[in-house]
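Note to self: the last two entries modelled the partners one at a time, which told us nothing about the interface. This time every component goes in together.
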Amino acid sequence: MAMGAPATALFAALVVAPIGVTVHYSLNDVNFLRDEISWVGFSNYAKLWESGDFRHALYVTLLIAAASVVVPNALGLLFAVLLDAGSRLYTTLRIILFAPFVLSPLVVGLTFRWTLANDGSLNNALEALGIPGPEWISSPNLAVVSVGLALAWQLIAFATVIYVAALRAIPTDLYEAASIDGASGYMRFRLITWPLVAPAVTITTLISLISALKLYDHVVALTGGGPGRSSETVGLAIIRAGFTQNRAGLASAMAVLLLVITAATTVVSLRVLRRREVEL
Amino acid sequence: MMRQFRALLAIVVSALFLFPLYLVIANAFKSDPEILRSPAKPPVGPTLDGMSGVLSAGDVTGGLVNSLLITGSTIALIMVVSSMLAFALHMSTSWISNAVGTVILFGLILPTPVILIPVFRVLKYVGLQNSFPGLILFLCAYYAPFAVLVYRGFMRSIPRELAEAASIDGASLASIYWSVILPLLRPATASVLVICGVWVWNEFLPPLVLLGPLQGNTVTVGLFRSVGQFDVNYGQLFSYMLFVSIPVLAFYLLLQRYFVRGLTAGATK
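The predicted structure of the combined assembly is written out below.
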């Protein structure tokens, strides 16, 4: 195990220990400026429960997380079926389509800010079709949708490429045998494709869930959490409380909650999704 | 007919996904009035004003150098410590290594905002706050779980007997790792380098928090700060975004095969 020591030590010091410290801070009133710390029990958590702003941030985060599980999985699989072909054209298109996933979320957020602006490209396109474009970024509800769109943009790109890889791994003779047995297109999808892409569903769901729950960069670049605090996520709330307002105790309570939610949802989805996976 | 329609549809969908990148490239070479009038139009009579403006401001070059330095050191360190840990876990069946292998998996789901405040305190405690080494060590610890996952998955295809045979011949575990295992891991290493490289390059919150305002910062933090400046020059802003994007895109295109393979390797346990 000696060879594993460097990584284990780094992980223990800079990931495990900080989690412990976060839990500890969450039960205290922490003031870094005066270097004071005093035990307050669960009162930080109680404050969060009473805070409408935090409940809203939690709601926004969970809403985007739910959408981020459904939309990239559905559209990713759809686009993957479209792009699953051997020719050069499709190989090139797949390389192109994945590009959004490697771009900085800040860059994606900023380009979305331009595209979704009141006189931006999307509204111009809608206007050309005779549909009046809404105020994406400055209306409270659509600001949340905008943030979700920017994230989904990257996640769909990711999901598509993962699904294509999964589809390509399915032996074609399975489909041929099913056709000979008279299975319809829907039956072949239901009985061959869907079970065999199960690992792709698992990884897409987990990556989407985790990306959505820690959402920060996209929001900062696109709406800054506004208008007001209507598109603020838990990630933003933690950083604002911890750094801008110097309320590390409160921020840590939010962090612990976010961590518990992330662990619970990922463990449960992993359990459920792994059960579906079959060995070929 | 059906085939052409499918190809057309595939091209349209892919083009739609390229739009943000197109916006960055097109507007980096347009003048401000042009950008404001029609952001989606291609640059007619392209101008280099934005690019040269952002370069002469100096901020972006410093940021690029810092990002390159931080990303390079981080992924080199991740490669070494994660492959060593994966090898140790591969060779050992003790309860300690089982426990480490399980606990480290939880690192995969950890949202960064959750631990940054205490990480800053820990780094301050050892005198590494507001420093590149501090940030590099944290990013290494944060992304090591993913690298370990990829390496462990890959090692399943390497028979344990191979290392055991070498050890019967009298080779130490360290020399087996170095001369037998590491060369075999090359494809996994390529995946780890390109995936972690892209993630580390794009990191925004950790450098923002851990490097602080005094030190020179990464190119992502520089981009964020340039957005907040008063006299916004849009051509320069898009040029800045282009400078942030070019290195990751180049890295991705160079190693894109390994990118997808590494991500799916994680998927199939």
